[in-house]
Amino acid sequence: MATPIDLHEVAEREREARFRTPWRTKVCNSTACASAGSGAVLGAMRNLVDEEMALDVTVVPTGCMGLCSAGPMVRVLRRGGGEHAYGRVDSEVAVQVLRSHVEHDQPVADHELDDEMPFFARQERIVLANGGIIDPDRIESYVAHGGYSALEKALTTMTPAEVLEQIRLSRIRGRGGAGYPAANKWSLLAAADGDTKYVVANGDEGDPGAYMDRTIMEDDPHRLLEGLSLAAYATGAGHAYIYVRAEYPRAVERLDRAIRVARRNRLLGRRILDTDFDLTIEVRIGAGAFVCGEETALMASIEGRRGTPRLRPPYPTEHGLWGHPTMINNVETLANIPAIVGRGGEWFASIGTPDSTGTKVFALAGDIVNTGLIEVPMGTTLRDIVEEIGGGIAGGRPFKAAQTGGPSGGCIPAEYLDTPVDYDSLRELGSIMGSGGLIVMDDRQRMPDVAKFFMEFSMDESCGKCTPCRAGTVQMHHLLDKITSGTGSYRDVRDLENLCAVVRDTSLCGLGQSAPNPVLSTLHYFKSEYDELIGVDDA
Amino acid sequence: MMRERRRTLTVSFDGVEVDAYVGESVLQCARRHQVDIPSLCFLEGLSVYGGCRVCVIEVAEDLRLRPACATTVAADMEVSTDSPRLKAYRKAIVELLFAEGNHVCAVCVSNGNCELQDVAVHVGMDHVRYDQRSPMRAIDASHPKYLFDPNRCILCTRCVRVCDEIEGAHVWDVGSRGQQAVLTTDLNQPWGTSTSCTWCGKCVAVCPTGSLSYQGTAVGEMHHDPKMIVRLAAARRGEWIDPEEYR
Ligand SMILES: Cc1cc2nc3c(=O)[nH]c(=O)nc-3n(C[C@H](O)[C@H](O)[C@H](O)COP(=O)(O)O)c2cc1C
Fold it and tell me: For chain B, which end, N or C, has fewer CB atoms within 10 Å of the first or last residue's CB respectively?
């Protein structure tokens, strides 16, 4: 058996290496920036550095820096302090940055981003703390930034019950959509009978436009492994799965590699860090269906069966994978765990609001100046997110609505911009936190069109098991189609409203139960737009 | 009778108290007491599926609806089976089924002997509010003895379950999803070419619509026999069954 990793030594060595060259440039190589050409930027920088020995700089690929709309992003760091951020960098600009900034200490003004701008300054990063900082493929990089210290602390100084107690103190709620208190679920698994128990990380992330979980899995895979390990330790599970949607091949690759490296370093497998704790983690690839994110469908899929939800109870903690007690947590929920165990549950609970503690990652999209990934304390107002962090509406147009929760959520109009973004406030407004998609819309968007877009999504993603969801979404979509094309009538809107209630109240799983939300919320806040489309005289 | 020895508790249906066996479902209990809760996918003897949603009920003040087939009785449970909301929802669900497939009774082999038709009458459906989707799925007539018309299928999966759980052949399964969801035989090959089908006919016996029928039956001639499975399943459990009740 190999000797376990010496975390302190690795961290020390890595920190020393940081100062080997006076300059370091970090190139965001996450999926968004990669698709904008960060590969070429990395290549151009490395070529130049290879050719010219005089350039004393280390080039590091990193995960997401956040401001995707300004991608590819680059950061230049100088030994002894001083950091500059650049946006919209191509290979030419990259060379310019090295020539001018690194060689002559003259920042390239044209492409420089203001690090004090609210987009960066107003964020509070726990889950994304390593974004744009570490090299996702190097465990040393994660360890140098405190990685695996929480696991080491838990395994060597805490009992499973003590770890669970910290989760309880943190009052963290699940980031997968419903906001169920994580400690309750963990306690159920910890108390469940049986030698075989499973923990599952839900990385199916099917909401259109959402990429929070993808970014965590791709850019900080060891954080997820550490979170899962802590969850398994606290609950007595010996085996864990990470369920990743098939559309995320890069996440699968990075996680597979991270698992291999962790095993080699005795952070996974038998007798982890020379303690009595054993754990194996396996990646399972999804079947390309939104509904497979629903926990009972997800378990069916892992077992190799058709991914359809089943009736609950029994809940997974009573009857889960192959009949054994199983706990399913969202990727972001688990990615918060190392910080909670490392810094204490009370520290975590001091962030956010009393009922929604901690931070939340959002994928900011739509008609807004700064699009990208942000992490803010729970309870930040929608206005702060849209106007400050998001930089306001593109082109100076008026704000119309913010859509949260994707196909299960709703649209929030301008009069509620000062609402704090937390689980309960959003629910009161007829929307949900969901997994963190946040789409901002300006005055050109017609709300019935938005409702139709999401209904089409739900219709296509319905598994077909229960009648109201399978047949009801088809009829609701058909009615919305009539209404938005101007051939609908007063009766169609009334039928639509009735169907919303039927599908919401009688569907088997959350997909059908929440599919009417985009319709209900737009009918509630933007009824006049429906009236206009059907002609008011029609009534 | 074995059943008499089971432990009981008290529940109420629409304000009327009745005795219930510990562990039985609300639907089973209601049926024993002649409380009529319509259902389609449920069949005594097969595993509970909970997909049709026709048997939804309310429990006390809980706003959340539950399928009676999958809700276990509990002491002093107050079940409401026919509130205005439930009636409206059930009717809407049955209408959705009628709009989704081609359920034209006048030309159907099961006309007059059809559970879907009975449920539609039960919920008082006199017309369908929603636009007909009029699917045009190919009928599978490749089996020498039986016929499968997917346009009359309501995806209750009784055939899937009976074939897997009672016959042990697992010929049937569900393929695709959402409105494309359809029953398949073997690996989506014509039924007639199936190497796993035993020709036992249990799938046909349990079908609640005219979707599965015998070759050569004319309009109104098809008689299904779901009780056959109820008897068979009870016999396998070693239970005595009342021939009158299960005829
Ligand atoms: C249709 C549907 C899709 C879902 N998709 C996801 C998903 O992609 N990721 C996720 O974490 N949870 C998803 N959920 C929620 C899960 O069922 C489950 O509640 C969640 O993973 C629990 O994690 P948490 O307690 O950490 O929030 C989905 C639920 C439904 C009904």
Answer: C
Q: How far does residue B108's CA lie from ligand 1's centre (Å)?
A: 42
> Ligand 1 centroid to A304 CA: how many Å?
19
Supply the pTM of this predicted model.
0.96
Cα gap B182→B202, rounded to integer Å: 19
**From CA B69, how far away is CA B43, in angstroms rounded?**
9
Which residues sit opposite A78 in a β-bridge? Answer: A23
Strands (E), B51-108: 56-59, 62-67, 78-80
The predicted complex's ipTM stands at 0.96
User: B-side interface with A, Cβ within 8 Å?
Assistant: 48, 50-54, 56, 64-65, 67, 70, 85, 88-89, 92-93, 96-97, 99-100, 129-131, 133, 154-155, 173-174, 176-181
Residues having CB closer than 6 A to ligand 1 are: A 174-178, 180, 202, 204-206, 290-291, 293-295, 328-330, 333, 435, 509-511
Parent domain of B15: 9-82
| Fold category of A146-349 in CATH | Rossmann fold (3.40.50)
Is A37:A90 a contact under the CB 8 Å cutoff? yes
What is the predicted pLDDT for the residue at A325?
A: 98
Assigned CATH topology for domain A447-533? de novo design (two linked rop proteins) (1.20.1440)
Distance CA A274, CA B150 (A): 60
Closest residue CA from atom 10 of ligand 1: A176
Long-range contacts at A494-499 (CB < 8 A, ≥ 24 apart): A495/B129, A495/B130, A496/A523, A497/A523, A498/B88, A498/B92, A499/A472, A499/A475, A499/B92
Q: Convert A116-127 to b/e letters by CB count within 10 Å (16 or more is b).
A: eebbbeebebbb
Q: Whose CA is nearest to atom 8 of ligand 1?
A: A205
Confidence of residue B1 (pLDDT cuts 50, 70, 90): very low
CATH superfamily of A21-114: Glutaredoxin (3.40.30.10)
Express each pLDDT in A219-237 by its tens digit.
999 999 999 999 999 999 9
A450-507 pLDDT tens trace: 999 999 999 999 999 999 999 999 999 999 999 999 999 999 999 999 999 999 999 9
Sign of the Cα pseudo-torsion (A407, A412, A417, A423, in order): negative
A409: amino acid identity, one letter: G
Question: Domain check: are B38 and B61 in the same one?
Answer: yes
User: Are the Cβ atoms of A507 and B53 closer than 8 angstroms?
Assistant: yes
Q: CB distance B177–A474 less than 8 Å?
A: no
pLDDT at B237: 87
